[in-house]
Design goal:
Blueprint (H helix, E strand, L loop, with lengths): L6 E5 L16 H12 L4 E3 L30 H6 L21 H22 L2 H13 L3 H13 L10 H4 L3 H10 L1 H27 L3 E6 L8 H5 L14 E5 L8 E6 L3 H6 L3 H13 L2 E4 L7 E6 L8 E4 L2 H12 L4 E3 L7 H9 L4 E4 L21 E4 L8 H5 L4 H11 L6 H10 L5 E5 L28 H5 L3 H10 L3
Parallel strand pairs: 1-2, 1-12, 2-3, 3-6, 6-9, 10-11, 11-12
Antiparallel strand pairs: 4-5, 4-7, 7-8
C-alpha cells in the first residue's frame, strides 16, 4: 500500500452536480465541486464510468457504447459559448429543468441539437488553433475511428444493435465499411468532434483538480456491452457466434441470499487476449489512466475466475471458469508501469481472490452497510478493516445510509446503536466518522450521505431497469456542503 497515502473523499457522478442544463457537466459544475472538496480537505473524487450512455440500458454507465469514449451529454455548453461555437441565448433553456432529477430524454432533446450546431460552426469556420488541435486528436487517438464509425452507423440504421445491421457492415467487411465511411463522412466527423470536445474539457478539469490537490477515482467495468464499438470492432476478443451474437454471457450464480444474475455482456476469449499480449487491455487501462488518477476495477473476482452462462440459458446454467489471473496484471504492468487500482471484491471472496488482490497490491472494498452488527467479527464491521482496504458507509449501488437504516430490523438497529454508541439521530455522520477513523488507507462517502438523505436519493438499485442514475444535488444543497465538519473530521482521522 506504499503507493497510497491515508486519504479520504466523496463519491458523486458528474451527472449529479448542479447546472441549468438539466444534467451536471465536466465544466464549471465539476470545477466548483472540486473546489468544494479541496476546501473540505478532501483529496479524492470518485465517480462512475464516463462512457457513452444507452437509453436502452436505462442510462447505466456500466453498459456503455464504448470502453474508451466519453458521454457527450457531459460536455459543458458554457465552455462552447466561450469558444464562440454557441451563444448564451442558444444555451438558455426555454423552460427550467428539474434541479433534483436528470430527465435524460429531455436533456438529449435540449443538448444534442446544440452540440450539432456547435459542430456545424466548427466545421464551417475551422478556427485555426482549435482545428489544428482537432486534427492532432484524430491522429493520436487510436480508438476514435472505430467508435465514430460505429456511432454513425448506429444512427444510419435507426439505432439497431450492430448484430441487426446488414451483414457486410455487421461483420466488418472492408469494402462495405469503406463505402459507409465515404457516405457518412460528416456524421463520423461530428462524432469525432464530440469526443474531441469532451476530452479537451475533461483534461482541463483533471488538470484543475490536480492543481488543488484532488485525485480522480475512476471506475472500469470488467465487461463491455454487447452493443458497443468494442465488441463490433474486435469480435475475436469475445466469445461470439459467427453472426456476432454471444455464445456465453457474464453473470453470477445464486449466493444463497440472492438469485443468480444474468448480466448480458459477452465474456472474453481470454486465450485470444493472451495471444495478443493483452494489448486491448493495455490500451483500455492506459485510457482509464488518462481519465483518472486511480481506477476502481469493477467485479475484480472475474480476473481470478468468472461465471459464464450460455446465451440461451438462465443464471443457474452457468459455470465457473479460470480468469487470466496474476499473469494478466503483470503483463499490464510491464506495459504501463505500476497500476493504481482499487479492487471491487465485494461478495463471496475466496482466498485465491484475496491473494490475487494482495499480489498486485490493490486495496479491496469494505462497505459498512453490509455488516452484521450483531456479530463480533463480521468482515464488514469497521474494527476489522485492514490498511489495504477502502472504507465506504455506502456505495452507488446501495441505499443511502438513512434509507438503509430505516429498513433495518429492530435487532440490527439495537446492535448498531450499541456498536457505534449512538441513538441514530445522525446515523449518516456516525457511519462516515467511523469510516474515516478505520485503519483503511482510503475512506469515501457518497455525496447524499453527507446530507442524511433518505431512500429517495438512492443512485442505483441493482437488478432494476428504471429510476436509476438520475439523482442530482441541488444548487442549494451544494451551497450547504458541510465543509467545516468534514474538514475537522478529516484532520482528526489523520487523512
Amino acid at each position: 500500500m506504499s503507493r497510497f497515502s491515508r486519504q479520504s473523499g466523496v463519491f458523486a457522478h458528474p451527472t449529479s452536480l448542479p447546472s441549468s442544463h438539466g444534467i451536471g457537466s465536466i465544466g464549471q459544475p465539476s470545477r466548483e465541486f472540486v473546489h468544494t472538496l479541496a476546501d473540505a480537505d478532501q483529496s479524492l473524487w470518485q465517480l462512475c464510468p464516463l462512457g457513452p450512455l444507452s437509453s436502452i440500458h436505462g442510462n447505466s454507465p456500466y453498459q456503455a457504447y464504448s470502453a474508451f469514449a466519453i458521454e457527450p451529454l457531459l460536455i459543458d455548453l458554457d465552455l462552447l459559448v466561450e469558444e464562440e461555437l454557441l451563444t448564451a441565448e442558444e444555451t438558455t433553456p426555454a423552460e427550467p429543468f428539474s434541479d433534483e432529477r436528470v430527465d435524460y430524454d429531455a436533456v438529449r432533446e435540449f443538448k444534442y441539437p446544440l452540440l450539432r450546431t456547435a459542430f456545424e460552426r466548427f466545421d464551417e469556420e475551422r478556427p485555426a488553433a482549435l482545428w489544428s488541435d482537432f486534427e492532432s486528436f484524430q491522429e493520436e487517438t487510436d480508438w476514435l475511428e472505430n467508435y465514430a464509425l460505429f456511432r454513425a452507423l448506429k444512427r444510419e440504421f435507426d439505432g439497431q444493435a450492430w448484430t441487426d445491421w446488414p451483414e457486410p457492415v455487421a461483420l466488418h467487411e472492408s469494402t462495405a465499411l469503406d463505402e459507409y465511411r465515404e457516405k457518412l463522412a460528416d456524421e463520423i466527423r461530428y462524432r469525432e468532434f464530440l469526443q474531441f470536445v469532451a476530452a479537451r474539457q475533461w483534461d482541463q478539469l483533471r488538470n484543475h483538480a490536480t492543481q488543488v490537490g484532488v485525485k480522480i477515482v475512476g471506475d472500469m467495468p470488467i465487461y463491455v456491452a454487447q452493443d458497443s464499438a468494442d465488441v463490433w470492432a474486435h469480435p475475436e476478443l469475445f466469445e461470439l457466434k459467427d453472426d456476432g451474437t454471444p455464445k456465453d454471457v457474464s453473470g453470477v450464480p445464486s449466493d444463497g441470499n440472492n438469485p443468480a444474475q444474468k448480466w448480458g455482456p459477452p465474456v472474453y476469449d481470454w486465450a485470444e487476449h493472451e495471444a495478443t499480449g493483452y494489448q486491448w487491455w493495455i490500451d483500455r487501462l492506459d485510457r482509464q489512466l488518462e481519465l483518472a488518477d486511480i481506477v476502481r476495477l469493477d467485479h475484480f473476482r472475474g480476473f481470478e475466475e468468472y461465471y459464464a452462462i450460455p446465451a440461451e440459458g438462465d443464471g443457474s446454467d452457468g459455470e465457473w471458469r479460470s480468469g487470466p489471473g496474476l499473469e494478466f496484471f503483470r503483463t499490464i504492468e510491464d506495459g504501463l508501469g505500476e497500476l493504481p487500482i482499487i479492487a471491487e471484491d465485494i461478495g463471496f471472496v475466496t482466498e485465491e481472490i484475496e491473494q490475487l488482490r494482495r499480489d498486485i497490491d490493490a486495496p479491496g472494498m469494505k462497505v459498512m452497510q453490509y455488516a452484521d452488527w450483531c456479530s463480533e467479527e463480521h468482515i464488514y464491521l469497521p474494527h476489522t478493516y485492514e490498511r489495504d482496504t477502502v472504507a465506504y458507509p455506502g456505495t452507488h449501488d446501495t441505499n443511502t445510509v438513512r434509507g438503509w437504516y430505516e429498513s433495518l430490523d429492530d435487532r440490527q438497529v439495537e446492535c448498531l446503536h450499541y456498536y457505534l454508541g449512538t441513538d441514530g439521530t445522525e446515523i449518516h455522520w456516525d457511519l462516515i466518522e467511523r469510516a474515516w477513523h478505520t485503519a483503511s488507507v482510503m475512506a469515501i462517502t457518497p455525496l447524499q450521505d453527507l446530507y442524511g438523505l433518505g431512500a429517495e436519493a438512492r443512485f442505483n438499485t441493482p437488478g432494476t431497469e428504471s429510476g436509476n442514475w438520475d439523482w442530482r444535488c441541488t444548487p442549494e444543497g451544494l451551497d450547504q456542503f458541510p465543509i467545516e465538519r468534514l474538514r475537522t473530521l478529516t484532520d482528526e482521522a489523520g487523512r
